[in-house]
Each structure stands twice: as structure tokens, then as C-alpha cells.
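G., the chain you wanted modeled:
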Amino acid sequence: MGFPVIRPRRLRRTEALRAFVREASLAPGDLVLPLFVLPGKQERRPIASMPGQFQLSVDEAVREAKDAAGLGVPAIILFGLPEKKDARASGAWGKDGIVQQATRAIKEAIPDLLVLTDVCLCEYTDHGHCGVVEGQIIANDPTLELLARTAVSQAEAGADVVAPSDMMDGRVAAIRAALDAAGFADVAILSYAAKYASAFYGPFREAAQSAPQFGDRRTHQMDPGNAREALREVLLDLDEGADMVMVKPALPYLDVLRQVRDAVHVPVGAFHVSGEYAMIEAAAKNGWIDRDRVMLESLVAIRRAGADFVLTYHAKEAARLLRP
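Predicted structure as C-alpha cells:
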């Protein structure tokens, strides 16, 4: 049978019908809010390339976290801007590191809010790279110890989930072994397993003050043309002990996200990155798009492609719109 008996529009007739048969849903509980934390008090420094986003002192980060939790957002992820940087990223693993301070304060203020912590060195090194630099080379194996120390330090501060984003080979195994040895067997690892060498990270590097001082990150982040390699990276990280995996960026890599979702049976996340956020904000400012509709449509698309959760700078705005 075909038309006129078959009429797909019957199920689009009212909002109630559309909601009843909707395949992919979006709720505040699907979102994770990234926060940038820096030293000081009562600091809210606007990020020029990310309108509406700020570098926050710990007290302000606590306030943002409370706002997010009140809107039904279940988790935040922290990125740190240290007071000082050096070649070995010592600020990343210090007991009083900025992420450690923020983690303790947020867990004390909102115990039920999940705190994820980014495990990478680029924000803490004076050269801006994600690992130890030897000559002009980012040295893989010497970096693993520093990443593991960072993860343990964050776990000691109260992190629920550590999220290595560096893309060094073997870092998940090194972190898992270090966490277990330090008594943190229950701290989960969310691996940035398929992280591409993307131009969409530009605004983040302003926000985190993490632009490399020479070269680029294409020797460790993935080539944008590769999808099969993403599956290899994901499976390797799971074999090393990752509890969850992530695809980054999100919208330009929905095909990869779908393939990862179909290949594994663990939670899969996607990062709706700074460049994606900035494009929506810039187009909306010029009156070219309906900001709220494009924002929600983008996040639904990421969920539809297979993401169980989405890291997005739009988390609070989306949650407000999604609340009954």
C-alpha cells in the first residue's frame, strides 16, 4: 500500500504526536558543562571568541556549577589556567593546582554534581604542547608519568571521572594503573579516544591559554580524513581500561560517532567544541539564524548520531529551554 492510505504526516500533526514518536530526545541530564578556572576571587573574565563564556575564579566556578545543577545538568568538566607554567606542567598535578582547588570546592558545595577533570598538560606547559618536549618532538613515553600523576592528584581532590585528552599512546593504561595503585579503583576514566586535529578548537585555545608555541598537534591528534583509525583508538583505550569514550569534535564527525556507537557497548560522549559554539553565537548575533533552535537542533543531532552525553558550552542555555 502507498498513498493515499500511507500518510507519514499523520504522526506530525500535533506537538503531542511528534513528541510521542520522536526517535532521539534531548534533556538536561544528557549535558555536561565545561568550565575554565583561574586563580583569584570574584573573577569572571569574558572570553572574546566565546560570547557568554568566562574564565572563572574558584568561587565563581562554584556559582556556575550550582546554577547548572539547579537546571538539571548532572556534570561539569574542569579546565585549569595555572598561575605559572613550566616545561613539565607541574601545575597540573600540584595538590593546590587550580583544578584541584575547584574540584574540592565544587564537591563540598554540591556533592551530588559529577565533577569531570580534563587530564592534559597543554594548559600548564610554557610551550603549550600536550606532553614533554624533547627538541621539537612531543615525547610520548615520558609524558605518561606526568599524565598519571595529574589524574591521581585530581582523584585525590575528589574528581568522579578523569578525562585524558592528550592523545598519547598508552595513557589510559598508565592512568588506570596509577589510580588503582593509589587507592582510586572506583574513579572512572572517560577517554578522549577519537580526538581529531581540528581547526574547530581555535576559541578554546584562547579560553585555556593553551596555543602551542611552535608546531602543531598533528603528530598525536587524529587526521580529519580517518574514520577506521578512530575505531582502532577507541578499542585500544577500552582494552587499556577506559570506562567511557568520547569523539571530539562532534558535528563535523557525526559519522565517526555513529560508527563508534555501533562498535562498543560502553557509554559514548561527544564534545560540541568551542568552534561549534562560536559559529552559532556569531551567526545568531548577525541575525542569520534562530540561535535557540539551531543550538537545540545541533545537540539533538549529536544525540541522534549516538552520543549518550554531550559536553557543550550551551549546557545551561539548553537546559533552560528544555525544562518543562
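The mean pLDDT is 95.

Shout if anything looks off.
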